TrEMBL record:
This protein's name: GNAT family N-acetyltransferase
tRNA processing among keywords: no
Alphabetized PANTHER family for the sequence: AMINOALKYLPHOSPHONATE N-ACETYLTRANSFERASE-RELATED-RELATED
Organism lineage: Bacteria, Pseudomonadati, Pseudomonadota, Betaproteobacteria, Burkholderiales
Keywords: Acyltransferase, Transferase
UniProt xrefs under Pfam families: Acetyltransf_1
Matching SUPFAM superfamilies: Acyl-CoA N-acyltransferases (Nat)
Domain of life per record: Bacteria
Domain N-acetyltransferase stretches: 11-154
Molecular-function annotations in GO: acyltransferase activity, transferring groups other than amino-acyl groups
Signal peptide per UniProt: none
Length: 154
């Protein structure tokens, strides 16, 4: 289990509780809905629930308001970032960078060698990942080539 950060920031990060699941699924489904539709995928609430149960889940807050979700799993010597979701109206204010930097720090603290994630090819967040040192490592679990696997050393 990772400990939430104590770094001074406008953002607060806390471990998610069972009560946060509805928020997390709704935010993720809303944010990813357009990609699923464009790439002819079907949202599976049962798969999200299974993934939620296997992941370390965190809620990003500003002034006590939940604005985002971070979901992580440790896979071998990598920290897999399952989800970085930020609510509309709170994007482009550093929240995604904050979550990624926190994940990178946690990976280092755990002695892991890399962080990895997957992103839809048409998701603008891929530019952030590239700026933060992620590189394409080939398609993984890609459907119709819509998803790219990215990784970066810690």
């Amino acid at each position: 289990m990772f400990a939430p950060t104590d770094d001074p920031s406008p953002f607060g990060l806390r471990q998610a509780t069972h009560d946060d699941f509805v928020f997390a699924e709704a935010l993720t489904r809303t944010n990813m809905g357009g990609y699923y539709e464009r790439h002819h995928l079907i949202w599976r609430a049962d798969l999200f629930l299974a993934s939620w149960r296997e992941s370390e889940n965190f809620i990003l807050e500003v002034d006590g308001e939940a604005i985002g979700v971070l979901r992580l799993t440790e896979e071998g010597d990598s920290l897999h970032i399952r989800d970085v979701q930020i609510a509309a109206g709170h994007r482009r204010h550093g929240a995604g960078t904050y979550l990624l930097e926190t994940s990178h720090r946690w990976a280092r603290e755990r002695g892991l060698r890399e962080t990895q994630l997957r992103v839809f090819v048409d998701n603008p967040a891929a530019r952030l990942y590239l700026r933060m040192g992620y590189r394409l490592v080939g398609p993984r679990l890609a459907q119709l080539g819509a998803i790219r696997h990215m990784a970066r050393p810690v």
